[in-house]
Each structure stands twice: as structure tokens, then as C-alpha cells.
């Protein structure tokens, strides 16, 4: 399952090199090395091997970072996320929160400037970023990420650019087409929950559509919101983490709707332009509770049905 996720990210990694330069690949290598070493230190004393999941965590975490993120900050993030998002809960399969998002949230809050201000322009033409270490930096807000541009000026980047990915933003979150194709591949391989993907989009579209139609200037049209700000990347790769997401079918729908709704609220009324990262972590918090509630409801419903049939419990 982990190898399937890794395969699905390869087009995103290649496109990120084209858009932003070879630095993103070197950053990915550095993060993966330190992620693996961190898990190795903890698993060695228990005579356990490093799981392939840490490679997935390292890749997904790196893809959420700006291209110019300092190496040391990215490394500190993966070490923190591996320890406090995974190992403190007992290691692989026991984490409550998505470790990649724990890493991202930590560096986002601790080092806000490199994570929110310093962005790079997306390359165009041939050879694009394949011919440079990193593309030119952005100096003004009018050239920043699509969500920042909308928040500051009210302008929206063209849908074509959002689909292709030649916009500034986090390393692997810019190309909507490649992310959607990756999602289709994961669903085909039965690795990621389509229920969570669809419900997240429905929750987001429902609330953002209502607010947009009622004239809330902070809320862009739903399609723009879906294609920007890392929403699709989060819905397909992060929210569907099988360990931190609910296990029941009904729970997955509730979980996804919660994430979609919370994303709209954070984007429109909080300080954060994105919101998807925190929305998923909030969803992770409610995941186990949702499952327990679903199980309790089903048990109670079965007891009532059995009583109606005259079955002694």
C-alpha cells in the first residue's frame, strides 16, 4: 500500500522539479534521510525495522513545503513530526494524527516567515526548472500563491493555470490535474478511501457555495477554492491516511464533511490563507470519536430491532 502511494507521487515530484528547480528534489532527499534515521533510532531498541510509511510521510511532508524552505527547518520538521506525531503513540499503525501534517503544522507555526512569505515563481517553457537549482523568488504579494493573492487583492488566478500547476505555491500542491490523476490511481488500487475524498469536497463545496452566493467577499467561488490552497492534495493524500482516519463507512463520510466545512471557515475567517492542514488535524481529533459513535448507534439500533422481533438479549 505504501509503495502504491509512493508511485502516485512520482508525477508530482517530477512536475515540482520542472516548476521550481532541482532544489525541491534535494530537499526531498534530505527530509527522507532524516525521517528514516529518526524512526530507526526509536525502532532499533525494540528490534523492529523501519517501516515504508516513514518514506511516504517524508514525501508528503516535503510536497507541502514552499520550494525555498531552508533545509534545516525542513529537517527539524520531519524529526518533530516523526517523534511526536508517530513514535510517542507507539509507532506505525498507532498514530492518532497524520505525522506529515504534524511536521507541517510545527514548522508553519514555529517558522512562519519561510513558510508563509518566501515563495518561488513557477517556471514556464523548456527546460523549466530542470535547468536550474531553484526558480526566481517572489518579492510582492501580487505574485504570491493563489490563495494569498485572493485574500490580499480579491483577484483569482486563471483556472487553466491552477489545473496545469504553473503557479507559485507549495512544492507538490500546484497541479490540480496531476493530483486528481493520482487520486484516481489510488482509488483504482483501493489504497485510499473515495468516500473521504468525495465527502471532503462535498462539505467544502456546500458551505463555500452558500457563503459565496450570499455575498461573503472572503469566500471565492467553490471551484477556485477546490483547485487552490492545497485542498485537493490534502483531500486525496492527507485526509485519507488509513491510520488517522475513521474506519467505519459512515464515519468516513462524516469525517470528510467536517474537514471540508472547517477548511472553508478557516480560510474565510481565520488568519491562515490555506486552512486544509489544520482542518485535517481537527478531523483526526474527531476520527476515533466518530467511529465509536457509529458503533454505539449500530449496536443500539440492533438491540431495538431484536427486541421488536422478540429476541431475548
TrEMBL record:
<keyword id="KW-0812">Transmembrane</keyword>
<feature type="transmembrane region" description="Helical">
    <location>
        <begin position="219"/>
        <end position="240"/>
    </location>
</feature>
<keyword id="KW-1278">Translocase</keyword>
<feature type="transmembrane region" description="Helical">
    <location>
        <begin position="12"/>
        <end position="37"/>
    </location>
</feature>
<dbReference type="InterPro" id="IPR004338">
    <property type="entry name" value="NqrB/RnfD"/>
</dbReference>
<keyword id="KW-0285">Flavoprotein</keyword>
<dbReference type="Pfam" id="PF03116">
    <property type="entry name" value="NQR2_RnfD_RnfE"/>
</dbReference>
<feature type="transmembrane region" description="Helical">
    <location>
        <begin position="163"/>
        <end position="187"/>
    </location>
</feature>
<keyword id="KW-0472">Membrane</keyword>
<keyword id="KW-0288">FMN</keyword>
<keyword id="KW-0597">Phosphoprotein</keyword>
<feature type="transmembrane region" description="Helical">
    <location>
        <begin position="101"/>
        <end position="120"/>
    </location>
</feature>
<protein>
    <submittedName>
        <fullName>RnfABCDGE type electron transport complex subunit D</fullName>
    </submittedName>
</protein>
<dbReference type="InterPro" id="IPR011303">
    <property type="entry name" value="RnfD_bac"/>
</dbReference>
<dbReference type="GO" id="GO:0055085">
    <property type="term" value="P:transmembrane transport"/>
</dbReference>
<keyword id="KW-1133">Transmembrane helix</keyword>
<feature type="transmembrane region" description="Helical">
    <location>
        <begin position="252"/>
        <end position="270"/>
    </location>
</feature>
<keyword id="KW-0813">Transport</keyword>
<dbReference type="GO" id="GO:0005886">
    <property type="term" value="C:plasma membrane"/>
</dbReference>
<dbReference type="GO" id="GO:0022900">
    <property type="term" value="P:electron transport chain"/>
</dbReference>
<feature type="transmembrane region" description="Helical">
    <location>
        <begin position="71"/>
        <end position="89"/>
    </location>
</feature>
<feature type="transmembrane region" description="Helical">
    <location>
        <begin position="194"/>
        <end position="213"/>
    </location>
</feature>
Amino acid at each position: 500500500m505504501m509503495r502504491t502511494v509512493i508511485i502516485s507521487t512520482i508525477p508530482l515530484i517530477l512536475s515540482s522539479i520542472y516548476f521550481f528547480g532541482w532544489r525541491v528534489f534535494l530537499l526531498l532527499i534530505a527530509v527522507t534521510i532524516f525521517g528514516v534515521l529518526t524512526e530507526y533510532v526509536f525502532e532499533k531498541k525494540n528490534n523492529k525495522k523501519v517501516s515504508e510509511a516513514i518514506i511516504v510521510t517524508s514525501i508528503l511532508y516535503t510536497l507541502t513545503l514552499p520550494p525555498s524552505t531552508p533545509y534545516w527547518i525542513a529537517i527539524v520538521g520531519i524529526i518533530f513530526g516523526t517523534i511526536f506525531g508517530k513514535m510517542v503513540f507507539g509507532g506505525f499503525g498507532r498514530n492518532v494524527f497524520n505525522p506529515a501534517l504534524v511536521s507541517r503544522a510545527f514548522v508553519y507555526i514555529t517558522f512562519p516567515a519561510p513558510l508563509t512569505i518566501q515563495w518561488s515563481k513557477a517556471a514556464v517553457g523548456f527546460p523549466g526548472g530542470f535547468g536550474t537549482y531553484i526558480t526566481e523568488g517572489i518579492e510582492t504579494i501580487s505574485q504570491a500563491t493563489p490563495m494569498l493573492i485572493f485574500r490580499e487583492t480579491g483577484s483569482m488566478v486563471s483556472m487553466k493555470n491552477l489545473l496545469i500547476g504553473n503557479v507559485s505555491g507549495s512544492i507538490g500542491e500546484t497541479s490540480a490535474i496531476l493530483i486528481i490523476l493520482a487520486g484516481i490511481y489510488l482509488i483504482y488500487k483501493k489504497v485510499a478511501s473515495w468516500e473521504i475524498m468525495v465527502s471532503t469536497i462535498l462539505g467544502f463545496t456546500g458551505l463555500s457555495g452558500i457563503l459565496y452566493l450570499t455575498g461573503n467577499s472572503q469566500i471565492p467561488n467553490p471551484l477556485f477554492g477546490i483547485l487552490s490552497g492545497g485542498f485537493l492534495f490534502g483531500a486525496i493524500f492527507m485526509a485519507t491516511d488509513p491510520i488517522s482516519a475513521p474506519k467505519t463507512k459512515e464515519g468516513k463520510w462524516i469525517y470528510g464533511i467536517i474537514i471540508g466545512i472547517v477548511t472553508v471557515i478557516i480560510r474565510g475567517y481565520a488568519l491562515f490563507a490555506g486552512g486544509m492542514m489544520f482542518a485535517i488535524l481537527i478531523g483526526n481529533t474527531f476520527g476515533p470519536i466518530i467511529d465509536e459513535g457509529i458503533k454505539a448507534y449500530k449496536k443500539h439500533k440492533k438491540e431495538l430491532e431484536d427486541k421488536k422481533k422478540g429476541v431475548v438479549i
